[in-house]
Design brief:
The protein has 221 residues and is of the alpha/beta class. The chain folds into 2 domains: 141 residues, 3-Layer(aba) Sandwich (Rossmann fold), CATH 3.40.50.1000; 57 residues, Orthogonal Bundle (DNA polymerase, domain 1). Helix 2 packs across helix 3. The relative contact order is 0.17.
Length: 221
């Protein structure tokens, strides 16, 4: 089937993990747990990792087990100076502008953080919409229910007409099981068979121009 929708992850996909953004957010997550919950400092990282692996995101775990206000959490953990970590990426903007198919963001972060990242990268106006973690509540990636809600928001396209572009192996695994086509950004754990296509970084997207599954995605020269 012809691909008509490209679904991009945000963090560590539109920009590289080496930027330090997610490290800074991680520190804020630890501080939030320390400041708001009765968790000893030496156990904060363990609690955070446990919630992340059991619930998909630390936020979902904090909501279920501690009744944390998601907006309070999201506003706190994403309150970092993005200008210290991200620079405008005109090369990526040029690449994305060559795609004729619908482009959307699907992220486990919130709308405000996504808009700030896109503004900092100078990618405003590129994407048709942002689907954030609150749009798919009470679920989140990699839960199949989150992907189903994202599809509903997009008008219920057939998953086989959509490409999920992600840095997360577990998100890619769910997407593939549901019938999405997939592109994994970053060669995690040497799993060459983990997605329909692999990229070292999103700036290499044009290398996939002749891939059969992306036929018709690109604007005509």
């Amino acid at each position: 089937m012809t691909i008509n929708t490209l679904i991009f992850d945000l963090d560590d996909t539109l920009y590289p993990p080496s930027s330090g953004v997610w490290d800074a957010v991680g520190i804020r997550i630890d501080n939030f747990i320390l400041e708001n919950l009765a968790v000893p400092a030496e156990k904060v990282t363990m609690v955070r990792d446990d919630l992340f692996h059991r619930y998909g995101t630390t936020l979902r775990g904090l909501q279920v087990e501690f009744g944390v206000d998601p907006y309070k959490y999201l506003n706190y953990v994403h309150n970092i100076p993005l200008e210290d970590y991200l620079q405008p990426n005109p090369a990526l903007r040029k690449i994305l502008n060559q795609i004729d198919a619908r482009k959307t963001i699907f992220t486990n972060s919130d709308q405000n953080h996504a808009l700030r990242v896109l503004d900092r990268l100078r990618l405003g106006g590129i994407f048709d919409r942002i689907i954030d973690v609150m749009d798919v509540a009470p679920y989140c990636k990699p839960m199949p229910e989150a992907f189903k809600l994202a599809l509903k928001i997009l008008g219920d396209p057939d998953p086989s007409t959509c490409v999920v572009i992600e840095d997360s192996l577990r998100n890619v695994d769910t997407a593939r099981e549901m019938g999405f086509r997939t592109i994994l950004v970053g060669r995690h754990n040497g799993r060459a068979d983990s997605a329909d296509a692999l990229l070292d970084s999103l700036e290499d997207l044009l290398d996939l121009r002749d891939l059969p599954m992306l036929k018709g995605v690109w604007k005509q020269a």
